[in-house]
Amino acid sequence: MRSSNKSRSRNKNNNRRNNNSSGNVINRVFDSAGPSGRVRGTPQQIIEKYRALAHDAALDDDRVGAESFHQYAEHYSRLLVSAQKILDERQAEHAQRQAEQQAQRQQKQQQQPVVETTADAQPDVSGGFEANAGEQPDVSDNNIVATPEGKQKAPTRAPRTRKKFTPEVVEADTPPVSE
Q1: Among 54, 140, 147, 155, which residue carries the largest CB count within 10 Å?
Q2: What is the rounded CA–CA span in Å between residue 107 and residue 67?
Q3: pLDDT tens per residue, range 101-157
């Protein structure tokens, strides 16, 4: 009974590892249990380590060991290449989406009416009021422009004050203290 529980928990852990493999493999740290022991690092570091071990094995005339190290290096090279392809595809999709959004923004800007302000489009104000000494322009109520300075402030409320708490004294039925 106990062995079946162990196998179930192993399967759950394996499924988690397989589902999590879509992450960033390029910077992920791996533990590789190769023929010379454990090698730890990113795929690029592991590849370099196994190539160095293969080179050392080839110098010691160990063809089988050198080939084994080359195979480990090739495995991590394939992991690195596939991860790089996925990363490049994601970057291309992102760049395409950015270009589409930029095109949409430009279309929206082109659809908005453009108001041109040139000297010809300005109203003619040359026939305005000329003030002589002592004359004042006629100002009527419909010509007054409201400004923030001219607005009256709303009446402010007096700050609230709290009533002081006075505890109620409850007289208990206690006999008076005799001296």
Answers
A1: 54
A2: 59
A3: 999 988 888 887 666 656 555 666 666 556 565 666 565 666 666 666 666 666 677
Residue 70 near residue 53, CB atoms below 8 Å: no
Residues 6+ apart with CB under 8 A from 46: 30, 32, 39, 40, 72, 73, 76
Give me the residue spans of the domains in the chain.
Answer: 22-111
User: Left if phi > 0, otherwise alpha if psi is -120 to 50, otherwise beta: which for 73?
Assistant: alpha
Sign of CA dihedral 22, 23, 25, 26: positive
**What H or E segment, with its residue span, contains residue 40?**
strand 37-41
* CB-facing half-sphere around the CA of 85: CA atoms within 13 A: 6
CA angle 137, 141, 145 (to 5 degrees): 85
Q: What is the pLDDT of residue 110?
A: 84
Q: Show the tokens assigned to 87.
A: 């990363």
Q: Is the pLDDT of residue 93 over 50?
A: yes
Round to whole Å and give the CA distance between 52 and 45: 11
Residues belonging to the chain: 179
The pLDDT value recorded for residue 63 is: 93
Read off the tokens for 90.
């994601």
Cα–Cα distance for residue pair 64/75, rounded to 1 Å:
17
